[in-house]
Design a protein that fits this description.
- Helices cover about 25% and strands about 30% of the residues.
- By secondary structure, the protein is of the alpha+beta class.
- It has one domain.
- Helix 1 packs across helix 2 and helix 3 runs antiparallel to helix 4.
């Protein structure tokens, strides 16, 4: 059994750009500023996946497996939010965030679902709606800010 709970998560990634980045099988895109990425960690490793994303951002782990690796490898993870849950709420959270935030790259992080994207342009003025949405997505679960060094 993993020491990490299962759940969904949101990463806030900063790209000091503009920077052209190849994102796996998606088209090359230009990135500049802050982005939110919504992911799930419902497998056997649970939310340990977030630690891996942070390691890719710090350069201590090679990325390239997931779309988000291309961003974390080129930028900095500024914040990460974990929502412990055993329910598959990743797409539901992405759908809720799509009402508030722009989605700059079609298909990003969404190759295994019908969502337009799991990547969003982030504006700090919208942090309150982000936190509110994360709190409402999994009743009874409290989003936890996580920064691993």
């Amino acid at each position: 059994m993993s020491q990490y709970p299962k759940g969904i998560y949101t990463l806030r990634i900063r790209i000091d750009g503009p920077e052209e980045i190849d994102v796996g099988n998606l088209a090359r895109a230009s990135f500049d500023g802050d982005y939110l990425y919504v992911g799930s960690a419902l497998g056997s490793g649970g939310l340990k996946r977030v630690r891996r994303h942070l390691q890719v951002a710090m350069g201590s782990h090679e990325g390239g497996h997931w779309h988000v690796d291309h961003l974390t490898g080129a930028g900095e993870v500024v914040e990460s939010w974990l929502i412990p849950t055993t329910k598959d709420l990743e797409c539901e959270l992405a759908g809720e965030l799509a009402e508030e935030f722009e989605q700059p790259v079609e298909g990003f992080g969404a190759s295994d679902c019908d969502c337009y994207s799991h990547l969003f342009s982030y504006e700090s003025s919208k942090k309150e709606p982000l936190i509110k949405t994360m709190k409402e997505i999994a009743p009874g679960a409290k989003p936890v800010r996580f920064d691993w060094q």
